[in-house]
Amino acid sequence: EELERIGPVIEALAGLAGVPVSVDTTKSEVARAALAAGGRVLNDVSALRFDPGLADLAAEYGAGLILMHMRGEPRTMQDDPHYGNLLGEIGAELAGAAERALGAGVRRESIVVDPGIGFGKTISDSYRLLAAVVRIAALGYPVMVGHSRKSFLDPDRRHPPAERLPESIAAGILAALGGASMLRVHDVAGHRRALEVVGRWREARDVDTEER
Predict the structure, then answer these.
(1) Which of 121, 150, 157, 158 is flagged as catalytic?
(2) How far apart (Å, rounded) are the C-alpha atoms in residues 47 and 122?
(3) What is the pTM of this model?
(4) Is 184 among the catalytic positions?
(5) Are 30 and 9 a contacting pair, CB within 8 Å?
(6) Helices (DSSP H) in 73-131: which residue ranges?
(7) Beta-carbon count within 10 A of 145 CB
């Protein structure tokens, strides 16, 4: 079913010059077909727990590999998630996944880690991760944050997901300031415009720092 849904889309998008296509899957069969159709990045929300063969495929095709942290599986991940040491455990599990990928032959520069905000995390956990992106970045890999429209942004459920643009952009700015290299979002144009402001702010800050 995954192949039937995304195969034609990947083939169409892969034809757009200069636009790398990422496929979100935990299955080697789907990943191989996606890469053969022109996909260039694999996004594994299980960080190789469900199918370690994804690392072999990333290595074979020279593809990017995004490793996202998730406790449990999608159907059960929000059933009372808990951690003894949130940042320590997530950091260790992501580091272990990255090491497995390296062992399979994936190039270090092709690996991206994602703390998995909202995946097996409480609302408090998600905000702590958003505030500690720099700790995840200390693992030595680019960090992707997928925060867009998620329920932790609106814990009182005042707005449907599609109307959470202000909350999403605010979280995206915080993630970027914290050291995130990539943001996974629904509203690309809005985030891009906001991040342009962040970029100009950083330039002004750096100039002021140099003049001191």
Answers:
(1) 150
(2) 19
(3) 0.92
(4) yes
(5) no
(6) 86-103, 123-131
(7) 26
